């Protein structure tokens, strides 16, 4: 509980969280206003998908910067050394700090979307189930990228190194990965499609968008071709669950390996 309260005070006193939330609210309000011209039957769902597409570019960067600098600040101000002298292991510190970061940042962003839901309800045909699917996707999205930020904060030793690592990671995940998929796409055949599908859906951005499309009624999973049936061989919620468990666990594990700050602990 001490870690959560400490994280709450640090994040709310800083400008980074408020800047991120402000940018998110401003861009979201413009998208909500624009969605009034959408068809009434699926206008709300189309607007939610547009919000997610916008979040692909903004939210990873905000989440990684907030989480990584929260960890780095503990090292820079030597507060982590004080905490570790109180019979707290480094692994326990990273775990408790990760939990605190996740709870505070996710709660802040989800609260913003519940505030925005008032605008959605005022201007659009609001559907509770669709909105809850969207909130679930946002929570898992933040869960993954917050944990990536924790790893970067543990692994980097200087602020310049940390800024560069955040921007490079954001560029690789948001842009370079899709370019690589497009490059290897001509080599995909019916025989190796299942392997490609695993790789494709282990990208959290692809999986979260697919889950949202399927559960908002914007992508039909019925009457698919044999090719698509082999590609989408599991329900969208299973792909979502795999990403929600695998990536945070993976980045927490490698954070534990780099817990000495940029060097692998033997």
Describe the structure.
The protein is mostly helical and 266 residues long. 78% of the residues lie in helices and 0% in strands. The protein has eleven helices and no strands. It has helices at 2-13, 16-34, 43-76, 79-84, 90-123, 128-155, 159-184, 193-201, 204-215, 226-231, 236-257. Helix 2 runs antiparallel to helix 3 (43-76) and helix 6 (128-155) runs antiparallel to helix 9 (204-215). The radius of gyration is 20 Å and the shape is globular. It starts with a helix and ends in a 9-residue tail after the last helix. Residues 262-266 have low confidence and may be disordered.
Walk me through the topology.
Elements: H1 2-13, H2 16-34, H3 43-76, H4 79-84, H5 90-123, H6 128-155, H7 159-184, H8 193-201, H9 204-215, H10 226-231, H11 236-257
Helix pairs in contact: 1-5, 2-3, 2-5, 3-5, 3-6, 3-7, 3-9, 5-6, 6-9, 6-11, 9-11
Short summary of the structure?
The chain is mainly α and 266 residues long.
Residues in helices, as a percent range: over 70%
Structural class: mainly alpha
Number of helices: 11
**Largest sheet properties:** none
Helices and strands, in order, run as: HHHHHHHHHHH
Report the strand count.
0
As residue ranges, the low-confidence spans are 262-266
Radius of gyration: 20 Å
Ends apart, CA distance between termini? 30 Å
The average pLDDT value, as a whole number, equals: 88
What percentage of the residues does DSSP assign to strands (E)? under 5%
Choose one word for the global shape: globular
